[in-house]
Write a structure and sequence with these properties.
GO terms for molecular function: ATP binding; ATP hydrolysis activity. 34% of the residues are buried. The protein contains twelve helices and 14 strands. The chain is elongated, with a radius of gyration of 25 Å. Strand 7, helix 6 (198-215) and strand 8 form a beta-alpha-beta unit. The chain is of the alpha/beta class and 369 residues long. It binds adenosine-5'-triphosphate.
Length: 369
């Protein structure tokens, strides 16, 4: 039986759920092999990459050095060409574009870099104006647009300065303004905060979030820093050895990583270390009078609920807090707490049962005297 035909105009693009909307970027079985150079072997940098960047989202690709991140992002703006598969940008296959096709495509893609790539001989204003000059925009229009962009990135008072007179964070703000000059639909970020200190990193990430939310620009970023993913990415893809080993919504991936590499990345921001003085005394077998050490994970609304007092009330015993943290992942609360309770059978079983009834994940770490 044939499917019923879809009536043209029955669904407007605005009414489509995100999952059905055309992704801003789609990789289909993409591979990249760098050709052998004299005396060297060919390098397979990427293989079998299937990845969709939903329109309007921020997707972060994380991986260690050499995993293939730079190659992946360079394929999206045509600085490298895929050797296998296809890349679609807003539905258009860019894999077969000619150089002149790429020139007009690149106007729809902005890019920012780890080392900013500003022209040192041009003022802030002239750096931001450059893509507009290349596109042949009239001078009066350029002036108005550059002023708007500098106001957006918080540098309205720096337009006549030169890059050497700016801090790293200010240079990246100029990079962002320049990348937005041609009204791109997609912004690519290549380790954009790796050269910045943590506080400046946070302010640049907040600006990127604002650009995404207020201008509706899709962002694909690559990084080796998990806090960047935690802070602003809606989705995360983990890349290793040229392959995507895990991909999903940031909160889901962080709270239940499936691949060992993902688990190693996320434990640095979600886990609570067992304090040294405790770790050296931990045993797997309980002895009479011992305490049981548990790691409790709080997700979503549980992270801010008074669960420890509720737990004590249910089981009628004291719960000692040993270490903990409450944080936000992609804007959602997440907490992890190390506690100790009596190891004796009825009490410890009651605690584990009560934690389950409260909807909390508990992991037994060991026993201490
Ligand atoms: N132009 C090139 N010619 C040959 N091999 C290359 C080239 N560029 C990258 N490679 C190789 O491809 C693999 C992936 O490199 P890529 O730079 O994409 O990784 P990365 O994750 O961005 O690493 P890093 O964070 O260190 O930049 C590596 O083995 C690298 O040596």
């Amino acid at each position: 039986m044939m499917n019923a035909p879809v009536r043209p105009g029955a669904l407007s693009a605005g009414a489509l759920p995100i999952a059905l909307a055309e992704p801003a970027i789609r990789f289909e079985k993409v591979g990249k092999t760098y050709a052998a150079r004299s005396g060297q072997q060919a390098v397979s940098a990427l293989a079998g990459i299937d990845l969709s960047v939903p329109t309007g989202s921020i997707l972060g690709v994380i991986g260690r050095s050499g995993a293939g991140k730079s190659t992946l992002i360079r394929l999206v703006n045509g600085l490298e060409r895929a050797t296998d598969g296809r890349i679609l940008i807003h539905g258009e296959d860019v894999t077969k574009l000619t150089e002149s096709g790429w020139r007009s495509q690149r106007r729809r893609i902005g890019m920012i870099f780890q080392h900013f790539n500003l022209l040192s001989s041009r003022t802030v204003f002239d750096n931001v104006a450059l893509p507009l000059e290349i596109a042949g925009t009239p001078r009066a229009e350029i002036a108005a647009k550059v002023e708007r962009l500098l106001a957006l990135v918080g540098l309205a008072d720096k337009s006549e300065r030169y890059p050497a007179e700016l801090s790293g964070g200010q240079k990246q703000r100029v990079g962002i303004a320049r990348a937005l000059a041609t009204d791109p639909k997609v912004l690519l970020c290549d380790e954009a905060t790796s050269a910045l200190d943590p506080e400046t990193t946070r302010s640049i990430l907040a600006l990127l979030r604002q650009v995404n939310r207020e201008l509706g620009i899709t962002i694909l970023l690559i990084t080796h820093e998990i806090p960047v993913i935690k802070e602003i990415c809606d989705r995360v893809a983990v890349i290793e050895g040229g392959r995507i080993v895990e991909e999903g919504e940031t909160f889901a991936v962080f709270t239940a990583p499936q691949h060992p590499t993902t688990a190693r990345f996320v434990e640095t921001v979600t886990g609570v270390e067992v304090p040294e003085h405790l770790a050296s005394r931990l045993r797997t077998e309980a002895r009479p009078g011992d305490s049981l050490v548990l790691r409790i994970t709080f997700i979503g609304e549980n992270a801010t609920a008074p669960v420890i007092s509720r737990l004590s009330a249910i089981v009628g015993i004291d719960v000692n807090i040993l270490a903990g943290r409450i944080d936000a992942i992609a804007g959602q609360p997440f907490g992890s707490l190390l506690v100790s309770v009596p190891s004796r059978a009825p009490e410890s079983e009651a605690v584990l049962g009560a934690l389950k009834s409260l909807g909390l994940k508990a992991e037994v770490i060991g026993h201490v005297s």
